[in-house]
Write the structure tokens for this entry.
Amino acid sequence: MKKTIYYFIYLLSFGMLLSCENSVSEATLSPYVPSNMDENAGNWKTFVLSSPTEVSLSAPAAINDPSYLREIDSLKNTVAPNLTNEQRQIVSYWGAGAVYRWNEIARELAARYNNAPAANSEGKYPVPDANNPLADPKFPFANPPYASRALAYLSVAQFDALVSTWKYKYQYNRPAPSVVDKGIKALLPVSNLPSYPSEDAVVGQASYVILLAMFPGEGSFLKSKLEECKNARLWAGMNVGSDIQAGVSLGGAVAAKVMQRAKADGMGAANNQAATADMMAGAKSMGISKVWTSQESPARPPLLPTFGNVKTWNFDRATLEAIRPSMPYVEGSAEFKKDWDELLAIEKNQTREQAAIANFWADGPGTYTPPGHWHRYGANAGFEAKYSEVRMARMLAYLGTAEMDAGIGCWDTKFYYYTPRPQQYGVKTSVGLPNFPSYTSGHSTFSAAGAEVLSAFFPQKASTFNSYAQQASDSRVYGLIHWRVDCTMGLKHGKIIGQYAVKRASQDGAL
């Protein structure tokens, strides 16, 4: 009966929280003209490209060229009233912005693949195979570190590609089709942004390349979304065919360069189980008397024990080690007892509010994990602010790289100290039991990093984002799977990591 009541309260609380935090809904995603066209974005500093013109793009045909005029005539036969209801719905969907929609698609895929492999008949946990992604267990297992990396590379590819796009747009300055020919009635708001190359096609192709690499079993789904993304611009009368073709070429070329970094960032060696023996020995030598062990039966190997060695974005390895949180409280200390007493009190008298918060922020299997949670906040805030595509991509790139850096820093800390979870002392949890060490809290680290970045971009919302981060952190204590010190130090660590992303953003040339 008590569990049923808690679940009912959780549903009510979830709805209230969601209505407050997520004011952008499917019903209100009306297309807009950006509040700032960011004409100088072609000069912004990129993440992977050495310059916005590293990938070359040929000049388009002039608007009085016969080939372009034929494209205009073809477009007239494509736009309304010749569209079906389904085509109009696709135009409306993509009218929210390609960056927004592809980020949403990535989060959906992360949620779809966030399922840990089950034990087989031999009592072993098979590892997903990237070369056979649809076999059981499916590849990838989109856990929080994996999701953070996928979203980071997606957002960086979008941003770098759009900075290059803006450079060429204003270099070639070809007007939108409806500006060239008043006979074309565009179905989406038209601005003074040059149309060549198509920003939606650039984002679509770049996103397709990255997400196909991250979710190789989703080729047909991603291809269908890419075709929608490109066709929507034609059906809406926003671009001619050569705008789209140029965008595909540019977006694909930039994404290929971003993937070169991904292939060399060390993720392939992030699941080195052989390294754990030395990690445990190192923790014990520092005074950790009881190290983390899996509480599942059969025991599950720790999740990505060497993810902490993956290459970071906004600081180097020496910095990662320098900002690593200090050693946590050891068993038997007064501080340890204080944290233990707090957990026992919650276990005995958990409030309805605590249960609701623990469940709302669980972000466990079947969800897009804490990094996805913060990307949703960022995308919605950018939409509310009527960001241009390039500014939306910029914000998400700094958020994404901060989230990935937070995952790397947190996992480095977890396996450096290798501390036990409260469950090893008999405390039960109702929100899932992660298979990796306790200190520090991933939720806390991810959330503080996300809040720090988003507060810099949307200072008027800083108090809201910081309250979300605190609540996400508290949820792990309320859920009885973290000690308070895990969460307190995770928040501090995440904030520092976010500050590195904010510092980098302040130096990229954008206002």
